Amino acid sequence: MERRRGRWPALGCGVGLRADHYDLITREWPAMDWFEAISENYMDSRGRPFHMLDAVRHRYPVALHGVSLSIGSADPLDPRYLEQLKALVERIEPAIVSDHLCWTGVDGQQLHDLLPLPFTEEAVAHVAARVGQVQAALGRPILLENVSAYVTYRHSTMPEWEFLTAVARGAGCGILLDLNNIYVNAVNHRFDPLDYLAGISGELVGQFHLAGHTDRGAFLFDTHDRPVIEPVWGLYQEAVRRWGPITTLIEWDADIPPFEHLAAEAAQARAILTEVQRLPLALSVSGGGPG
Amino acid sequence: MTPPSLRETQRWLKARIVPAGQAEGPSGGPAAAPDEAWLNPQGGAPGTARLAVYAEGYLARIEEALAEVYPATRHVVGRHAFAALARNYASAIPSQDYNLSRAGRRLPEFLSTAPLAGDLPFLPDLARLEWAVAEAFHAAWHPPLDPSTLAALPAEAWPRARLSLQPAVARVASDWPILDIWEARERPVAETRIALVNRPQRVLVTRRGVAVQCELLDPPQDRLLGALMAGAPLGAACEALAASVEGDPPPVADWFARWAGAGLFTRCDIL
Questions:
Q1: CATH number for the A13-286 domain, one of 3.30.470.20, 3.40.50.300, 3.20.20.150, 3.40.980.10?
Q2: Fewer beta carbons below 10 Å: N end or C end of chain B?
Q3: What is the pLDDT of residue B22?
Q4: Which residue of chain B has the CA closest to A70?
């Protein structure tokens, strides 16, 4: 019986490729399962960032993770964005291409943020059709990530996990499941994160993100500038127990610590993946989701 | 009530995020409804308070993107004035490029009308230089033309030769010493003395490997490079230069040797 039921590559545990670490990485080529690169930092560059990514790609698997596809926007998809992304994908040959289930601008104006969609049938159909366009343009499937949100709309008609699943099934894409974002939203919007996991089909999940956030008292703010907290490690263990050793990223986007710190967090995640793999198979897949 | 469409929802949230200067006036319809009509009540904080996270985030991202590209401008005006400048810029100029790193593209033109430029008249040109540096950083660097190709060019072919330059090469001219100011961007302002008056500078922005380099051009060099970049063949470019220079002819051959040695030329076509 296959533990990895999806069609997504199992890369192990990686970290984000950040400019702060370019020198160290290209000098020491440290042990690391894979790197995730923010697509926009490279797709419009033929200078140093591009050469760094190219060099890293020669030594490690790479995933391209976008932040401005704006798959949920009411505006048409930006053809220039798709062209640039496609060119980068063809050059880098990443193991995974992903972006977020959100919108980042409307009426031609960019808001440069991962903004929440209403969880409606209209949005499911809209996003699913557009993912089809993106996948056709790139010639490969993508993953969409669940985002942190600070508000929810009154006119949403389904819980977030149903929305995410409906989009993935309708579009034929996969899910990049950010366990920190689930935790942040669970606290902000008062639901049980285990209900979220129970609502997701494991075969749709191609990757995990793990990150830290900031507690603003009245709500949690997703900042990616802290270590992963214990409850999020707990969710990760539960997700790995349900679905197996899915590709995992330790994600820092601000106040980025030394590379060794990132590597240590990745090692912690790797230990969880390895431990679960050592469990008897029956245990490791028992209690799995509906998928 | 009919639920709002996706576009209506996004227009409503956008109006809550972008700074006041950009917000469209009250238009009635769903956008005019109070926040409570759109958002679920939230346990800890009211939805309206949480919306502020998005508005703050927008300003913070624009400021960060500007600070990344315009370190010298920020250094000159100071951290607080720069934050205010970023806020005003974000209010006046909608960001239209998907890439946040290009959100500051219009800062030079914005600065030319900003009050700061009254006290610091070199700011728009300094910002133009910084944008050119950012563009050069990301530009392609093609295999350069072998300098011996130029040296081997028969004399009669020179006038009809058209040289193409690297996309990373740019010229920025100012009535102010913008290169001196740019180079002082990491020195404490209190320790920096730069004479401003009657010190025009023309700057060549280029690359050495992946690092951006800025160097001074004297006026004839600047004119010649400008003509070449506009696509003029060498004959016409050099004649125009000779007509504009009094006294001894400038050492054009030395310039070409230096520029070719630095890899600035990518190809040579004989017209």
A1: 3.20.20.150
A2: N
A3: 57
A4: B98
